[in-house]
């Protein structure tokens, strides 16, 4: 009944005061802060974990590159991650490398040799949760990944534990700092995407390969993790509908503003119930018009915020730093203390929970709302013609704004909620109509 | 070194699939929702806990009073709490009675007989944390109390676990729904305290004995719990400086508004460091002027919100329903699942952690800021005379506003940060000065 949660072997613990040996894989922005804080606050961690945490080594691909760093000074650097992991005096492996294939191999090797793992790697967890959970369960060890979603903001723990007695219906939020920084800057300056992107890059908010952020894949990994935790169902990144922010224009922001909205890249995870009472899970990431009065609208710069709706708890919000070396290290260190405590005293954290095993909803069946920005012919009867197209697809309209332009009219339509597939078909039909000169943009709405 | 955290006995767990017997003490707003949800969602809880949760009984003081309720229908009611607790098939005791002395006896009896305890009782935990933690440790069982602070908002868990790898410097927030409802209504309607209180009472927001809420004692209990968790130091309700909202007038709200502030009852817990680097802990509850642009200012109705500042994580906020049967039940049920899981699989939740054992700061030494509203003589030289009194006490002023009135002037002063004792002495000196006709109100500021 609860196979995924049950360790086949039970570790009774090493006993109070025993040292926990820690291997750190990766020594970038996060790894270097993790090491620094572990050494600086060693006494506090010993109290909290029940025994001293001793760093056995820090694995990097190129030892020379880290000459003169703290890890070098302490003689901890090695380029042999596999040997470090397999050392008998290593109990716990911390993976902060990034990427998927190489860390996957290392994490699996660690779990299979009975080491608990703490990772900040959202892409790895979202892509291979099943394999990792099975390896952890088979060995009776822990897999912690609080830092994989929204860095220092506690959300994995609250979903796994604090809300374990409730039924979650929705998780929605801003989970990517880079895109929020860009959209917030576009909103406050009126500048276009390319200029703001260049400025964000200059300020260090953009990764070497920006596509994971701006195409929404990073947020989609987090959505998969959140949906899995919230709905006790295995959801991978491939199950998440994903649309990035690269097509958002200054004009889109401007139109949103004039209608009382701002545009945010939201991750939205929902438990859907159809008319027959059948449940399914939807997870999606896309630019979203959010009313300015909604708390998510005022989440600015690179901050993250996550809403959780649960049947008994009602609506909760978690807000804070969703990225950066120190905030990510905070989450990693919290997991290190938790996993170490289990090594010392025995016990295991809740593992993957997939008992509900709900189907993933077809994106076409998900209820959404559209804001459609079109240029249309400026003549009598156009509005009637176009509203008939909406009606023919069963779409009712919430607001219609018309702005006169030279030689054409601009029509801004906000729909009521409808099936995504019907909305999408409506836009296709509109685009084929002679009266519609151009569909400038289609952006979904949420939060009303 | 870690005595408080180490179980002297270690429970290896009953094994996957084993039933966990639960006794519920109390059947009011919270207890009835806990029972209902446990029965309605029994399958889900069994998956999450690793075995079925079976309610063995619900103890109440008067069985007849609950005729026809769900507990009665299921034959669960008993007026013999002690016998229920001591049943061999009870593994876990849920205390949702309220009060201190009687639940203290029952909770101690449960812990001493090896039963884990889940309680929503902030007054009990804040008054007797040491005794309860020692009993839990001696028996190697769990004491959970997520619901004791801010109901469904996960904050005990995040402080105990997610932030266990960080150093928390401050926890501040709105932790009492009743007083926030009253202050929010005063702010939005301009009505006075008595009228808003009567309306809140009519709407069911006020307890039979309102003093715990409006005098700040409920918030002080929560502040004690938050400070203990955040600073790994035992802080009891008696250590918390406490001032309620009963003296807040419509005039105070009005003055605050005109200066860009709103008034909130805040619980503020800080780790203070003096010039010699000595650390201490301060916890206090008092009405506080908060700038309207601060996120806490927009926490309206009976909602709660808690800010946490930590060295690596930066600033985090948690927001949601801080009271009510269902939100409180959500937190209790999350704890029930956690404690049950430990019964099934072994392991223990982190217990009381008091290793830091920091001294409680004298309230006079705590840095605060004042907003002072006075009527003063309307003559040349008064302002100079009064500002000299501030200067003599080492207090510098941030803003001074003067409003002409009939036959006197009204002086509204906001100070910079100073020692509470110096500010307090300044106000005493002002009150004794002939030029000051009346000190209308003194309210502290925070959040700038």
TrEMBL record, chains A, B:
Transmembrane segments: none annotated. NADP(+) binds at residues 25-32. Keywords: Amino-acid biosynthesis, Methionine biosynthesis, NADP, Oxidoreductase, Sodium, Threonine biosynthesis. One of its GO terms (biological process) is methionine biosynthetic process. NADPH binds at residue 122. Pathway: Amino-acid biosynthesis; L-methionine biosynthesis via de novo pathway; L-homoserine from L-aspartate: step 3/3; Amino-acid biosynthesis; L-threonine biosynthesis; L-threonine from L-aspartate: step 3/5. It comes from the Bacteria. Residues 371-444 form the ACT domain. This is Homoserine dehydrogenase. It comes from Corynebacterium mustelae.
């Amino acid at each position: 009944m609860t196979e995924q949660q049950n360790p086949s072997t039970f570790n009774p613990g090493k006993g109070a005061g025993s040292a926990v040996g820690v291997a750190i894989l990766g020594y970038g922005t996060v790894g270097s802060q993790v090491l620094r804080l572990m050494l600086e606050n060693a006494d506090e961690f010993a109290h909290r974990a029940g025994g001293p945490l001793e760093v056995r080594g820090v694995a990097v691909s190129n030892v020379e590159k880290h000459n003169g760093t703290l890890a070098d000074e302490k003689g901890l650097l090695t380029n042999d991650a596999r040997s470090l992991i397999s050392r008998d005096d290593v109990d716990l492996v911390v993976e902060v490398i990034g990427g998927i294939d190489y860390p996957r191999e290392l994490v699996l090797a660690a779990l299979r040799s009975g080491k608990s793992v703490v990772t900040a790697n959202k892409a790895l967890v979202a892509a291979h949760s099943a394999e990792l959970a099975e390896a952890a369960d088979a060995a009776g060890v822990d897999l912690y990944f609080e830092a994989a979603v929204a860095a220092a903001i506690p959300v994995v723990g609250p979903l796994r534990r604090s809300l374990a007695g409730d039924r979650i219906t929705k998780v929605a939020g801003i989970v990517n700092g880079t895109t929020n920084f860009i959209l917030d800057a576009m909103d406050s300056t009126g500048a276009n995407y390319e200029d703001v992107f260049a400025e964000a890059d200059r300020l260090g908010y953009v990764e070497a390969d920006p596509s994971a952020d701006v195409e929404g894949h990073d947020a989609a990994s987090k959505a998969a993790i959140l949906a899995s935790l919230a709905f006790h169902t295995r959801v991978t990144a491939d199950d998440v509908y994903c649309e990035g922010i690269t097509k958002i224009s200054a004009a889109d922001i401007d139109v949103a503003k004039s209608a009382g909205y701002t545009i945010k890249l939201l991750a939205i995870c929902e438990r859907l119930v159809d008319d027959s009472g059948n449940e399914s899970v939807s997870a999606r990431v896309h630019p979203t018009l959010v009313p300015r009065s909604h708390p998510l609208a005022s989440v600015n710069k690179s901050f993250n915020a996550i809403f959780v709706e649960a049947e008994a708890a009602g609506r909760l919000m978690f807000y804070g730093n969703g990225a950066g070396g120190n905030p990510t290290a905070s989450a990693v260190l919290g997991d290190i203390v938790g996993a170490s405590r289990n090594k010392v005293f025995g016990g295991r954290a809740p593992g993957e929970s997939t008992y509900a095993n709900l189907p993933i909803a077809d994106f076409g069946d998900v209820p959404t709302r559209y804001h459609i920005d079109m240029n249309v012919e400026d003549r009598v009867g156009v509005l009637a013609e176009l509203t008939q197209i909406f009606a023919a697809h069963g779409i009712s309209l919430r607001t219609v704004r018309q702005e006169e332009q030279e030689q054409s009219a601009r029509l801004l339509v906000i729909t009521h909620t409808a099936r995504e597939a019907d909305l999408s078909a409506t836009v296709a039909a509109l685009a084929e109509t002679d009266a519609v000169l151009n569909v400038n943009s289609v952006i979904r709405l949420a939060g009303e």
